[in-house]
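Q: What would this chain look like folded?
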Amino acid sequence: MERDFKKPTVHSMKRRCRAHDYSWKGCYHITISVAKGLYQPLGRMAGRLDKPDSDNDGPHVELTPIGRMVEQELRESIHRYYPMLEVVEYVVMPEHLHFLLVAHSNVVSQSGKATHLGHVIAGFKLGCNKRYWAITGKIDQGEGLAEESLATESPGTLTSNNAGAPNNNSARAANRNNAGILTSDSALGDSVVKHAASGGALPPLFDAGYCDVMPVDEEQLTTQRAYIRANPRNRLMRMANREWLFPQRNTVDTAVSIPALKGYLQRECPQQLNDDIFAAIEMRLLKNNGRVACDSYGNLSLLNRRLLPVVCHRKDAGLFEKQKARCLAEAASGAVLVSARIARGEQEILDQALLCGYAVIRIEDNGFPDIYHPSADRMDDCAAGNLLLLTPWSYQFMTQEENITVSFCKTMNCISQAICKLKDSWWKDE
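A: My prediction, written as structure tokens:
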């Protein structure tokens, strides 16, 4: 089969870490999405943003019968078939779910074989699929896990308060040979199970594959827990600020042409620039009519105010306190600080500005994927109207080990000044 190697690589968040054995003990943040074409089958958003998460009226997801079934499978079935696995944090959203899965020891099947995490997830999906097909009437109540009483219970029977207590019918059905969680001996994987009666493929509840993130220390684990818990609030926040809290495409024309950018880089970093490096930059840049464009996330109206670029150069290190004081004074008077926030001084100035409630525009070093979630603090600043994120780059999957180059940094500094229509030395003027 011929392949077109000239086509750009399509990066997937579902790729596994090559150096890791997924049967080892550890902690995994798993994300699973529902199948394409299904509109929020697991629940709907509810609650109020002015209430704390612990309040009954705080942001939450009202689960459908299918969502409650998925929650029950998540809380019970994985641990039942793999006692070394424990779900320690989770959230079921209308069209996806997140959960922290801890393997207290290496994962083995009931027959004692080492088991890849993918087999566990595939088995969880199959168990959910069988009950989903029963609930939606795609298979008879007597087939496989369809016998479980959840399929015929009223919507109010199974709630998050009693989801942890399995009913007797569920336990009996789960002990059958065709139970929902696969062991490593199974070859079904993520495939769609064929319906014996009709010979056709039954539609799955979940999309193929899954995304996993492995927290490497306690700080990252705390961050992942907070992210999972904040999902309902963040979703409601985006719904309330739809224009600000979703990526907007091709919203900003920087007026920087490709030849002008190349000339700027040749002046600013001639040692770190050659034709190959510039070609890589140009390939990733967003362009419109031959000029660099930017996607946005946040309050676009900030572009209508006085804009001041913040770039900290090594040659001006001795003047940093003056630069910081001038930037914060201007921000206090209503100006918007614009920066790629690369140098330590730039980080200090922008962080202080946001802490004081001043307006900031950040130039991001990567593009926005279709599903984009900034950190909780940045989302809060965007929702409050104090932060606008701009990116001149198309999205590219990057590992933590990858660093941006000097020429990429200089490109973002150029964009900062172009958006402001002002040189980054403005703060030196008295």
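The longest helix spans residues 218-240.
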